[in-house]
Amino acid sequence: MRCVVLVVFSLFVVSQPTRLRAQAPRTGCSYAECALRLQGGELIRGRDLVVGRMTLIGGMPRLTRLAVADDSAQAYARTFDRWYPRSRWVMLASSIAGGLALGIAMDHVDAPERGMVIGLGTSFLALGGTAWYLDRRATRALGSALYWHNAVLPRQAER
After folding, report:
1. Would you say 30 and 149 are in contact if contact means Cβ atoms under 8 Å apart?
2. Number of other residues whose CB lies within 10 A of the CB of residue 13
């Protein structure tokens, strides 16, 4: 029964709509000031301003508020904003299911509990695979959003 609740909860989280708010592109913003890059799990704007961190839960701000220089960047940013938080929640649910399965399995598995261990283990594998897929989709969208955002920023000749 707990496995069913966990699977239903994870499907509920994945299916929730997200709110998207876009800004108008800033004018007069150069590459040196507004270029976005991902470095060591941190999203950095310009030379060294950290505007977000990729963590298990939360952490990363809405990319649609940051990658505003191009329509393509906005489209990919919306994709990232949709799939990244969902992948993190599914990954957390997968970790919980795996931990419960391991905890029950380590504690003298009897015949009635064996079904629960198998169910939790199966949920762990299914949720882990789903989280991996969602994370890959979000990561590809992040790379494309950063590329298109940075591609349209004017580069100034350094003297």
Report:
1. no
2. 15
H/E element holding 51? strand 49-53
Residue 37, helix vs strand vs coil: strand
Residue linked to tokens 């489209």: 75
Residue 30, CA distances (Å) to 57, 66, 92 in order: 32, 14, 39
Residue 100 makes CB contacts below 8 A (sequence gap 6+) with 2, 120
What is the reported pTM?
0.67
Give the integer Cα–Cα distance in Å for 147 and 70.
Answer: 10
Enter the tokens of residue 73. Answer: 């960047």
Q: What is the pLDDT of residues 8-49, one digit of tens each?
A: 455 454 444 433 333 434 446 788 888 898 888 888 888 888
Rounded Cα gap, residues 97 and 109, in angstroms: 16
Q: How far apart are CA 85 and CA 60, in angstroms?
A: 9
Handedness of CA 79, 85, 86, 92 (dihedral sign): positive
Specify the range with the lowest mean pLDDT, choosing from 10-24, 60-74, 85-99, 133-147.
10-24
